[in-house]
């Protein structure tokens, strides 16, 4: 009798999982920090490949429109270009998590839209670089739209950090089993998946998991500290090349790089991969939890990063912020209901498309999302049989972040530069301010990058990626002036666009 009762319980549990009430799809967005695509940043992600790439669609031409954490994340949340959400860099004065942001764009994120569509919403991890700081209102502020909030105060850390747990301040130390942030995000997310299944079975959920990896300070979990010790950063393409025909910030980099700079970036390369192994584990455990609770087949899982990265390209030791492919290209993978499996798509997509996509899913998948969003829904691309008409260009823009007090050991540097690394090579400056048109028309085989800098030089850079994939040769002085004129006019149009006009305006026809 005991055995029969036990068998009945098992069968009843299985039956319950198989007959879950139908509702709108769940959505899980996994966002990494500074994970590149160009330099092999996806190579360590064996579980991501097995569980997401093989079971979903990989987009090979995914870009950030602003290659820096806070403005890029603001674009992800709002679906807007930087000039429309007004977050331009990682500072409070640059509108990163500022009170102005909270009173404007933060009220119109995809979380708010999903919450209004009756989704239960969960957030865990890094939000915006200045979130929770005193000048941003402190950690008691819980951004609108989130039912369950576990937000890191400030920038990425792995140990010795503070989080806002639904507005309550919680401090963590340096013990791996109780404090390692990537694992805490895993435990929190898995727990919420199970709790949601138990308590909100008739309600869809949106979950955003935002990891610190592979951002510095690159503290790997103990079990991964000995991995990849024999590897070095890639030496091909633009590695250790000079920037002689580029903006002055690139020209100031020391070439060839000093040995200590190369050792520094090689060490960073290895440690970045080490930290990513815990993210790989996170993905596997999230997928397992969804499967164990019978929710996997009705859940979209989106995997991406906020920006790319460089390690020695054009002799810049480490960072992002630049207009080149290594800083702009990011991974993007999706699996879920109706998503084609083990395929790739080449259409150019931008992180401003994430918010419209999530909003579209939450609204029934009929192409509806807030008109304030500059991006488009990616749902039409999730089925490989569909070949919708698609954009052929988009905007890239960045407002430089400088300092009036250069590092004291860098006496030769002028005030205004910032983020100076080994050998006083500086990665940013107040006038590292640029806007670009990135054209990628696969049908007509046009693959260009046109950029204008706001500085005393009014410097212009133009690259033909078809013949120069590593952007070694600036062809601004040799190309037909009519091409420059057309690109300039297109840049003006995109730089002024908002909502519908970002999606509807047509680019000029270009031939080189």
UniProtKB/TrEMBL annotation:
Family matches, as InterPro entries: Alkaline_phosphatase_core_sf, GlcNAc_6-SO4ase, Sulfatase_CS, Sulfatase_N
Domain Sulfatase N-terminal: 25-363
Signal peptide: 1-16
UniProt keyword list: Glycoprotein, Hydrolase, Signal
Cofactor names: Ca(2+)
Pfam families in alphabetical order: Sulfatase
PANTHER family with a match to the protein in the record: N-ACETYLGLUCOSAMINE-6-SULFATASE FAMILY MEMBER, SD21168P
Entry's family note: Belongs to the sulfatase family.
Protein's UniProt name: Sulfatase N-terminal domain-containing protein
Organism: Clavelina lepadiformis
Biological classification of the source: Eukaryota, Metazoa, Chordata, Tunicata, Ascidiacea
């Amino acid at each position: 009798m005991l055995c029969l009762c036990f068998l009945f319980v098992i069968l009843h549990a299985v039956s319950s999982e198989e007959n879950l009430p139908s509702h709108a799809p769940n959505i899980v967005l996994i966002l990494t920090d500074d994970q590149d695509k160009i330099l092999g940043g996806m190579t360590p992600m064996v579980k991501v490949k097995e569980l997401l790439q093989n079971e979903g669609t990989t987009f090979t031409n995914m870009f950030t429109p602003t290659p820096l954490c806070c403005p890029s994340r603001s674009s992800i949340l709002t679906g807007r270009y930087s000039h429309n959400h007004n977050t331009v860099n990682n500072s409070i004065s640059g509108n990163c998590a500022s009170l102005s942001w909270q009173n404007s764009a933060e009220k119109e994120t995809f979380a708010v839209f999903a919450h209004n569509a009756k989704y239960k919403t969960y957030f865990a991890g890094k939000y915006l670089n200045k979130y929770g700081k005193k000048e941003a209102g402190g950690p008691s502020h819980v951004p609108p739209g989130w039912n369950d909030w576990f937000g890191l105060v400030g920038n990425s850390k792995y140990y010795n950090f503070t989080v806002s747990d639904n507005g309550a301040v919680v401090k963590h130390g340096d013990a791996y089993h109780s404090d390692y942030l990537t694992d805490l995000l895993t435990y929190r997310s898995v727990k919420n998946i199970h709790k949601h299944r138990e308590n909100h079975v008739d309600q869809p959920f949106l979950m955003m998991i935002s990891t610190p990896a592979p951002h510095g300070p690159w503290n790997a979990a103990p079990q991964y500290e000995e991995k990849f010790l024999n590897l070095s950063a890639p030496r091909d393409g633009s590695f250790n090349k000079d920037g002689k025909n580029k903006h002055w910030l690139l020209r100031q980099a020391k070439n060839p790089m000093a040995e200590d700079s190369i050792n520094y970036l090689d060490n960073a390369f290895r440690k970045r991969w080490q930290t990513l192994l815990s993210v790989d584990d996170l993905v596997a455990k999230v997928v397992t939890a969804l499967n164990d609770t019978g929710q996997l087949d009705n859940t979209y899982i989106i995997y991406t990063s906020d920006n790319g990265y460089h390690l020695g390209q054009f002799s810049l030791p480490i960072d992002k912020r630049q207009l080149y492919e290594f800083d702009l290209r990011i991974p993007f993978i999706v699996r879920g209901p109706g998503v084609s499996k083990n395929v790739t798509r080449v259409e150019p997509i931008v992180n401003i498309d994430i918010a419209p996509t999530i909003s579209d899913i939450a609204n029934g998948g009929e192409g509806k999302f807030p008109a304030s969003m500059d991006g488009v829904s990616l749902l039409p691309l999730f089925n490989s049989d569909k070949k919708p008409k698609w954009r052929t260009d988009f905007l890239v823009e960045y407002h430089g972040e400088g300092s009036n007090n250069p590092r004291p050991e860098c006496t030769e540097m002028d005030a205004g530069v910032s983020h100076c690394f080994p050998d006083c090579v500086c990665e940013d400056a107040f006038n590292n301010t640029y806007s670009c048109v990135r054209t990628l028309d696969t049908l007509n085989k046009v693959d260009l990058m046109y950029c204008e800098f706001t500085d005393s030089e009014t410097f212009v850079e133009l690259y033909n990626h078809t013949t120069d994939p590593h952007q070694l040769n600036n062809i601004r002085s040799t190309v037909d002036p009519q091409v420059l004129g057309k690109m300039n006019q297109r840049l003006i149009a995109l730089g002024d666009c908002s909502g519908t006009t970002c999606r509807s305006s047509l680019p000029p026809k270009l031939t080189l």
